[in-house]
Amino acid sequence: MARALIVVDLQQDFCPGGALAVSGGDEIVGPINALMDHYDAVVLTQDVHPRNHTSFADNHPGAEPHQIVRMPYGGQILWPVHCVIGTPGADFHEQLHVNRADLILRKGFRPEIDSYSAFYENDHRTSTGLAGYLRERDLSDLSFVGLAHDFCVTWSAMDAARLGFKVRVIEKACRAINVNGSLASARDGMRRAGVELV
Ligand code: VGL
Ligand code: ZN
């Protein structure tokens, strides 16, 4: 049984100065680089959206960011335009040790559906293929870090637990968006799903 560090969405747009900046997002880059030495594998996830993505408030006339709309796959929070494919905002933080990655997994590239989790798009059905990759490499012990704690980190960790992986979230190497109590309910959900918070 081997151990993987999964670094979620440590990209320019989620760091201070970015389009969907998470407070203190840049503070975790150094600690995450240091953690990489202690794992058998490093996976980076990258949130990438086409400009016409359905999660952008801009693409819903009259809508504002953080508003919830109904999609065929369920409720969807609308976000500011962020991580548009081919723009600097979609790039990783410039200090992140990207060359240490075994795998860079992109998600959110389909215009009609968002993907918070690194395992499934927001319909909870469309697979990204990550579980298969990890299983084939016998990477069954997973530690999650990155952005945002209460969205992409949480959804990824909960899916991983449901899929039978051993899952830990290293909270000091995460930062949250925290809209409408989202961090508290995220931590609650993770504990109930059997995710270890350290
Ligand atoms: C994320 C909102 C929209 C995240 C991505 O990485 O947590 N949050 N897209
Ligand atoms: Zn996104």
TrEMBL record:
Record-listed E.C. numbers: 3.5.1.19
Keyword Cytoplasm part of the UniProt annotation: no
The entry's keywords: Hydrolase, Metal-binding, Pyridine nucleotide biosynthesis
GO biological process, one term: pyridine nucleotide biosynthetic process
Superkingdom of source: Bacteria
Record-linked InterPro entries: Isochorismatase-like_dom, Isochorismatase-like_sf, Isochorismatase_Nicotinamidase
Any Pfam family the entry gives: Isochorismatase
Residues in Isochorismatase-like domain copies: 4-185
Pathways involved: Cofactor biosynthesis; nicotinate biosynthesis; nicotinate from nicotinamide: step 1/1
Gene Ontology terms for molecular function: metal ion binding; nicotinamidase activity
Similarity annotation: Belongs to the isochorismatase family.
Protein name as catalogued: Nicotinamidase
